[in-house]
Amino acid sequence: MENGKLSDCIIKMPIIPTFDPIEELNMYTSLGSLHTFARGSKIVSPGIPFSNVIFLISGQLDVSMVSRNGEEKYLLEVFKNGIAVALNQNDDHEFQITAVKDCTVCFFSLDIMIAILSQNTRLFKNFILNLIQKTQYFMYQSRDLYQSRPSARVFSFLYNLCLTKGNRVNDYYELAVENVSQKTIAKITGTHPVTVCKLFTYLSKEGIIKKNRKVIKVYDLNKLCNLIANEELTY
Predict the structure, then answer these.
(1) Which of 3, 152, 154, 177 is most solvent-facing, going by the fewest CB within 10 Å?
(2) Is 105 helix (H, G, I), strand (E, B) or coil?
(3) Quick one: DSSP state of residue 99?
(4) What is the dihedral of CA 22, 156, 96, 25, to 10 degrees?
(5) What is the CATH number of the domain that holds 193?
């Protein structure tokens, strides 16, 4: 493999569904079609055929699925230099991609993307690893939705977030609320927002967390870990 061995292809599993950027695609935007979208715009809508690889040059996108009864299932966020693949040539797909912020995107047709990747082995590897990363993330999430109680999913999310993203301050961890609001946790874990609110109230009463407008402070990881184990065993 160019510029790397097979052993270098490490798939990092994110806690929050944001995936590795592919900056090198900036070199090829002249081969695609540039578009700007205002915040709130629908770039891909359910039931409307769309067949492009979307490369985000600036801004932020929200990717979800919307069922026929209008129920929306959050999937992931796309940030600068991230990709979203929307190859839906029929009119019965459920995918929706929304501009969370004002954004500039480049649409690559499938043929153009294949031509680009065939000329750049390193870019091809990074593109494939990005898709594998997304696939594995949603495989694990599907397993958790099937096997775990909502409480176990929320507790596990907080636990893993402390270990990977938490800021250690003396004897506790701090998590920025702007990155992990209760609404965000509900979307990521597939849990009803009311349930997340009740679980946070319980954790606060147990002295495990304290939350204000800016941060969540997690004081007892061991107790949180025990709660996860107990919830999984009683399922």
Answers:
(1) 3
(2) strand
(3) E
(4) 0
(5) 2.60.120.10
Number of domains in the chain: 2
User: H or E element: which one contains 4?
Assistant: none
Which of 31-35, 62-66, 215-219 has maximum average pLDDT?
31-35
**154 shares its domain with 122:** no
Q: Smallest Cα–Cα separation from 216: which of 165, 175, 181?
A: 175
What average pLDDT does the segment 153-174 reach? Answer: 88
pLDDT of residue 11: 56
User: Hey, what's the torsion of the CAs at 11, 51, 88, 146, to 10 degrees?
Assistant: 20
Are 153 and 191 in contact by the 8 Å Cβ rule? The answer is: yes
User: What is the average per-residue pLDDT within 58-75?
Assistant: 89
pLDDT value at 6 more than 70: no
How far is the C-alpha of 99 from the C-alpha of 96, rounded, in Å? 10
Domain range for residue 228? 148-233
Q: Which residues contact 203 (CB under 8 A, 6 or more apart)?
A: 155, 158, 209, 224
